[in-house]
Amino acid sequence: MIDTHCHLDAVEFDADRPLVAARAGAAGVTALVVPAVERANFGAVASVCREFPSCRSAFGIHPMYVDRAREEDIEALRDILRREPAVAIGEIGLDGFVEPRDEKSQAWWYAEQLKIARDFDLPVLLHVRRAVDAILKGLRDIRVPGAMGGIAHAFNGSRQQADEFIRLGFKLGFGGAMTHPRATKLRELAATLPLDSIVLETDAPDIPPEWLGGRRNEPAELPRIAAVLAELRDMRVEDLVAATTANALGVLPRLTFARR
Questions:
Q1: How far apart are CA 138 and CA 135, in angstroms?
Q2: Mean pLDDT score of the chain, rounded to an integer?
Q3: Could you give the CA distance from residue 198 to residue 162 in angstroms, rounded to a whole number?
Q4: CA nearest 260: which of 85, 127, 121, 122?
Q5: Where residue 144 falls among pLDDT bands split at 50, 70, 90?
Q6: CA 41 to CA 183: how far, in whole Å?
Q7: Percentage, residues of the chain above pLDDT 90
């Protein structure tokens, strides 16, 4: 089972990170993709992925952190991609929710990092909150590697938008938000999208599933999230896990050889 989006480097895990990783492994989560959010945590992501054999790194600058980014961080991103194994560029994208925000700056960083993904032949992990149409426009303008476009993380758009991501070679990430009974539109999407378009994620420590009651999320919750998705789709959880794992390996091919 693969957690395609988990911030194991986050300060919320500083007190018990080895235990969190051990619980994930005991639960059957054999690989975790750990995306960076800014230049300042590139080193932390790389360190976590060296320490824990199940972790795989992604490097990028998150749209909510561009206000403190500098243009030289673009070269720093290229440099760490030359030095460290990575399975994707991420977490990158646009955010139309946070206030205040600089949409022009977000758009510049998004475009520049799509170019880096193209140059390094890497898929992207996309933050798409309230910005799906603008994200899709960027992907049409700057095409990332077509056979493995990447993942629309924490997807919560329309079916039409989902279909466009799929057409562009992307998978859609589903996690804790889908477990809440009131998330009816999201649950309908999770139940009806083509199975080969879906990957699992936790976004730990964020987006806790319903049963955590707002407490810290962690990758060991992934099997129960998978069970909810299997129930929504009326299928065996074993089949759901096998399919989503294959999907993750297909869209993130370097997962299979990211280790030194």
A1: 5
A2: 95
A3: 10
A4: 85
A5: confident
A6: 32
A7: 94
What are the phi and psi torsion angles at 150 (to 5°)? 140, -155
Q: Assign 211 to helix, strand or coil.
A: helix
Angle (CA) 160-222-233 rounded to 5° is 45
Q: Are 105 and 80 in contact (CB under 8 A)?
A: no
CATH number assigned to the domain comprising residue 180: 3.20.20.140
Distance CA(151)–CA(126), nearest Å, equals 6
Q: What is the pLDDT averaged over residues 194-199?
A: 98
* φ, ψ at 9 (rounded to 5°): -80, -10
Cα distance between residue 87 and residue 254, in whole Å = 5
Tokens of 195: 């199975």
Q: What's phi and psi for 5, nearest 5 deg?
A: -160, 105
> Largest Cα–Cα distance of the chain, in whole Å?
49
H helices of the chain, in order, are 17-26, 42-51, 72-83, 103-120, 132-141, 159-167, 184-192, 222-233, 237-251
pLDDT tens digits, one per residue of 224-239: 999 999 999 999 999 9
The mean pLDDT of 10-24, rounded to a whole number, is 98
> What angle is formed at CA 109 by the lines to CA 103 and CA 113, rounded to 5 degrees?
145
Q: Check if the beta carbon of residue 176 is closer than 8 Å to that of residue 209.
A: yes
User: What's the total number of domains in the chain?
Assistant: 1
Q: For 125, what's the count of Cα atoms within 13 Å in the CB-facing half-sphere?
A: 32
- pTM exceeds cut of 0.70: yes
Task: Give the range of the structural domain holding residue 69, as residue numbers without chain letter.
Answer: 2-257
